[in-house]
Amino acid sequence: MSQSQETLSNLLQETRRFAPPAELAETANVTAEAYEEANADRLGFWARQADRLTWSKRWDTVLDWSNPPFAKWFVGGELNVAYNCVDRHVEAGLGDRVAYHWEGEPGDTRTITYAELQREVSKAANALLELGVRKGDRVAIYLPMIPELPISMLACARIGATHSVVFGGFSADALRTRINDAQAKVVITADGGFRRGKPSALKAIVDEALKDDSTPSVERVVVVRRTGEQIAENPRDVWWHDLVDRQSDQHTPEAFDAEHPLYILYTSGTTGKPKGILHTAGGYLTQVAYTHYAVFDLKPETDVYWCSADIGWVTGHSYIVYGPLANGATSVIYEGTPDTPHKGRWWEIIQKYKVTIFYTAPTAIRTFMKWGDDIPAQFDLSSLRVLGSVGEPINPEAYVWYRQHIGGGRCPVVDTWWQTETGAIMISPLPGVTAAKPGAAMRPLPGVVADVVDDQAQSVPNGGGGFLVLKEPWPAMLRTIWGDDERYVKTYWSRFDGLYFAGDGAKRDEDGDIWLLGRVDDVMLVSGHNISTTEVESALVSHPKVAEAAVVGSTDPVTGQAIVAFVIPRGSAGEEVEGEGFVAELRDHVAKTLGPIAKPRQIMIVPELPKTRSGKIMRRLLRDVAENRSLGDVTTLTDSSVMDLIRAKLPSAKPED
Ligand code: 6R9
């Protein structure tokens, strides 16, 4: 990035700091010494974290990096991931501890202890074996947020089958592509799940994906009964309750190699077919367990932890299933949407289960800001002690709102940067150590080596902007793209020699702390200045009447690209937001916050923004709108009618000077 990026970034100065509460700092699981310890001996540090797990055979070598970028961690070691997540806690006398408080959207609940989880996972493992699933086979899992989802994942892990969870909101086409790429032998699904008070029809989508022999690898489909809706039955189908309930609840886990494939998870990206990100057993479990313990300061005896993500995304894999269970945590799982049956549902869940650690995404936080402060205020959230954020850069205003209105001003907020590919959290404050800045992911965690570099791969000085890279391999790193080593090398390791390129823009502030600026494809070039969408969006969201903003660069004959903003007003802003006055006020506000160069050419007031199903803003579609093109691929949108709502707003939103 050019020098001009620096000038702009420095205008958005953040002076607020939130030091850890004294009590948390005193009792924190991880202190500042961990950074020094890892710096002094990075591999020794990771070996000590791996020792928190139970291995059937200890490794000989911590890392084999003789054939980069193909890493092998804990070479020669053997373990069973499901044993580590379940059985060992039961053996340690913790069988009565709750693993999951599950809350269905209609209000039905299920509490599962570690002892019950051990029986359920064993039965499901025996069922998969009966269906002929063996070590190394792939199993596709297409389930709603019900207990059978983690149970199925753990059953696969237990017998050495590799799971591929496909998010329940994906279409038949998306499901078919993923099943075929992984050559899945079995599909586990449900008749449906509950979303917004209605049963969804999952099984019909599976039938559509599998029709006319278009997925030849699939031998059987296991169907969980969740909604009780009528479904079409097929000879290859078997009901979960017919198959699993009659199995023995005893199963002896076998140890697998540390590099045994644990799961494949597809990321869509902007171009080409989805990439099957491959994670393996030992390194992955080591890092998710460590980061869950360190970043959330988990005290498994007393904490109640809730990550609101869907298990269909990597956040759910690492921080609902593998990390928390490896640590023997008690977690909450919620099936449905935050506004069913009312907009306080999440806060009601926190109050009910006395949740102490809560992990969610900026998109959710901004939605709650839009709905108004009075909603969380109706609930008792005093049990909370640590809050986390993931998925997108968190705008400083959203951060402060989250801290204040959810955390009561007393809970540290950890902004955690990572990716499906990294498997685990990489950059984040530590709640008992870091004086966090709202909007900054701060520093790489102990054992992680990250940097911000320019296009010549040189580290930028403090105050500079550039590309985020990872300089050393880490235990939970992806091992390859399933079936496509060449694409793995090309996508992540070719832009900078010997460095992992994350695809994100970042800056380093005057203190050396890292701020994420969004995907590099989203950076705008205005009159020769590189301007990050994230910074303009944060400036807009810092206006008291703005709940959410998305910014794109639109082709402009004069400036090359011009900034076009889409803005959702806050719930309380009411009528005031209609009309020219408000738009002018916002443009001035951006000019004051960031400088005149960042003033949007055009601002459109819209009711919704297009988001991917994991909650990330789809700027590509907004660029199509801004440039008056027909829309590109909308299949990953949560709700495609959002684009019609935005289009309907267009005539009134005329460009200004
Ligand atoms: C975990 C997850 C990865 C991309 C990543 C980045 C964005 C995630 C972030 C963040 C800024 C954070 N991202 N966390 N950007 N601050 N705390 O979201 O994985 O779905 O693979 O997305 O998400 O752009 O490159 P995934």
TrEMBL record:
GO terms for molecular function: acetate-CoA ligase activity; AMP binding; ATP binding; metal ion binding. It comes from Actinomadura rubrobrunea. The gene is acsA. Catalyzes the conversion of acetate into acetyl-CoA (AcCoA), an essential intermediate at the junction of anabolic and catabolic pathways. AcsA undergoes a two-step reaction. In the first half reaction, AcsA combines acetate with ATP to form acetyl-adenylate (AcAMP) intermediate. In the second half reaction, it can then transfer the acetyl group from AcAMP to the sulfhydryl group of CoA, forming the product AcCoA. PROSITE patterns: AMP_BINDING. One of its GO terms (cellular component) is cytosol. This is Acetyl-coenzyme A synthetase. Acetylated. Deacetylation by the SIR2-homolog deacetylase activates the enzyme. Residues 535-616 form the AMP-binding enzyme C-terminal domain. Mg(2+) binds at residues 541, 543, 546. It catalyses: acetate + ATP + CoA = acetyl-CoA + AMP + diphosphate.
